[in-house]
Every structure is written in C-alpha cells, then in structure tokens.
User: Fold this.
Amino acid sequence: MNLRQFIKNFRPEWQQLENQILAMNKGKRHLTNKEISNFHQSYLKVTQSLSYSQTYFPEEEVTFYLNELVAKAHNLLYRDTVSSKSQFRHFFSRTFVNLLTEQRNFVFIAMILFLIGGVGGFLSVLSDPLNLYTILPAQIAEAVDPEFLGASDGMSGSSFMSASIMTNNIQVAFLAFAGGLTFGLLTVYVLVYNGIIVGALAALFWHSNMTYEFWAYILPHGMIELTAIFIAGGAGLLMGYKLFVPGPYKRSYQLKVQAIRSVQLLLGTIPLFIIAGIIEGYITPSTISLEMKYLVAFITVIGLIAYIVIGNLLMKRASQ
Assistant:
C-alpha cells in the first residue's frame, strides 16, 4: 500500500492510542488491569504500524510521529506496570495466555510433529531393539538399562536417564524456537527427531515389560516439559511460516513483528521448565509409589488446563 492508504487505514488505531495517553496523563493515576490490557493492545497495534512505516517509509514524517507515539506509550505503560508491580502478573495472566490462544494451531502442529516422530521411533525399536543404537546417541543408548529404573530412588538427584531427558528437552525447546529462522525447517526436524527418541525409549521398556514403570518416571515432569517444548516449537513454526508466506509484506517486516510474538511465547515457557525441574528433582526420584507419580502427572495436566481457562476468562472480563 502507498503512504496515503497506510495513513488512512491505520490512523484510527493511532488516534485511539493518543486518546488513551491523554486520558492517562490527565488522570495521573495507575491503570486498572482492564485499562492495562486495552492500552497494551493499542500499543502493540501501533508498534506494528511503526515497524511497517520504518520499512516502507523510513524518511516520511509519519515514521517520526509513530516513533514518538510509541515511545510515549511505552513510558506510560512501563511506569504503571512496573510501579504497581503488575508487569510480571500481567504478562503471564494476559499477554502470554492471549498469544498462546491465538497461536494454538501452531502449538498443536508442533505436538503432532513430535507424536509422529514418537510413533515412528516406537515402531522402529519395537520391531528390532537394536535399532535403538541407530536412533539414540551412543552415550545415552549404552547408559539406558530398564533393570536399573528406580535404582536411585530416595537418593539426591535423579536417574541418569531422567536428567538426560530434561537437559535434552530444554535444548530442544530453544532449538525448536530458533529453527523458525530457517523457515521452520529446523523446527520440524527437531520436533520429529526428539519425538523419535522418546518413542524409541518407550519401545525399549515395552520389550522389558516395564511400560507402566517407564511412564511413571517420565510423565510427572514430562507433561510440563513437553508442553513447554510444544509452545516453543509453535513459536518457531509461527516465525517460519510468516517468513515462508509473508503475504503482502516484506520478510524483513514479518521477522520484526513475528519475532516479538515468538520470543514472548518462548519466555512464557520458562516457569514451566522451572516447575518441571522441581518435580524432577523431588518427585521423580522419590520413593513414593508409581500410582502417586501418575497422580502428580494428572495434577500437572489439570493445572495447565486451569491456567489457560482462567487466563482466557480474565481476558474476556477485561475486554467487557
């Protein structure tokens, strides 16, 4: 679109943010949660306009105007959210949940890719256990022994296999996210391959008639870790898709806009990994029964669902 069309199409959004800034400065008060949510949405829209203007009209007056408007909005938003100590709460109760809801299709695709790899790895090792050595890194394949599962229960730390899986999953999350820069190709590879690894391990324990025990040690922390991986993978797929199919915009513009959204999704996974680490350090290697470990896994799933549902309810209430 040309400059005139750009201004005509988006001027109402800019005017809305201007009015909000004037109202907030006039009142000289802290923002309510509803006002923060509305103000944040307007701020994001104008930020996207600024990115577009910097790309296509870098020397035009509208770019300097938008830059000043965004700066004013940022200062006001930062002042209210930080001074009221609500920035952290606002991000995880509104911003992250909103992004997660909007991009749920990409998160779902990431989960499907992982499951495809998991089924493939499981069937491969199920047909021939020796295939495990062609799938897993040699160090992990040689160290995994179903007979020693739970041997370190009650001791400090977790088993080698459990610790290896946790470390691997954190690396997977960052690789899956960064893979978006390769148009999502690396993200797809990372998700599928690591699904293959988990599936291969599951098949190995199947051969030893220890499937029930295997998942009891994986699911308590694994449900949260895998959710974090799917979110990070969805962020990578989102960025890769927008780079591959930029629409009417340049890829450089899509990268600016989508990178922010993807990074926010990735940041939202940090508490998930922290919680998973606590569970893995204290629950997974504990001497509690296998049934109790399954109960912990069930509670984590309920907790994740409740977090998303409550977050969406808060957003709906704020928008009313």
Q: What stands out?
A: Residues 155-159 have pLDDT under 50 and may be disordered.
